[in-house]
Amino acid sequence: MNFADALAMAVTDGLGIAPLPMLFALPSLKSGELVCVLPEWELQTMTVYAMYASRQYLDAKIKTWVAFLRDFVETTLASEMA
């Protein structure tokens, strides 16, 4: 579990409001457990980085994982936000 997971659980349990990453909030927003407050406000965008030792001898598993993660996040957000 990471910070965003814990924050999403706390908000879903009724402990207040929080700026959740959309990827974590979407399931609860779709089910109606959460509602968006202050929709006209936007937080600073966040970039996700994949760090690895070297590009010179990049392992195929790492390259495949990074490509999968990029596609998963983009596809999930695009389909859910539409």
Features:
82 residues, mainly alpha, elongated
Structural write-up:
There is one protein chain. This protein is mostly helical. It has 2 domains: 40 residues, no CATH class; 36 residues. The protein is built from 3 helices and no strands. The longest helix has 22 residues. The radius of gyration is 16 Å and the shape is elongated. It starts with a helix and ends with a helix. 4% of the residues are buried.
User: Multimeric state of these chains?
Assistant: single chain
Q: Helicity level, as a percent range? A: 40-55%
Q: Count every beta strand, where a strand is a DSSP E run of 2 or more residues.
A: 0
Compute the number of structural domains.
2
Molecular shape: elongated
Q: What is the helix tally? A: 3
Mean pLDDT: 84
Which radius of gyration do the C-alpha atoms yield?
A: 16 Å
Structural class: mainly alpha
Low-confidence stretches: none
The sequence of SSEs as H and E is: HHH
Distance between the termini: 28 Å
Estimate what percentage of residues fall within beta strands: under 5%
Write the layout of secondary structure elements.
Blueprint (H helix, E strand, L loop, with lengths): L2 H10 L9 H10 L28 H22 L1
Quick recap of the structure?
This protein is mainly alpha-helical and 82 residues long. It folds into two domains: 1-40, no CATH class; 47-82. It contains three helices and no strands.
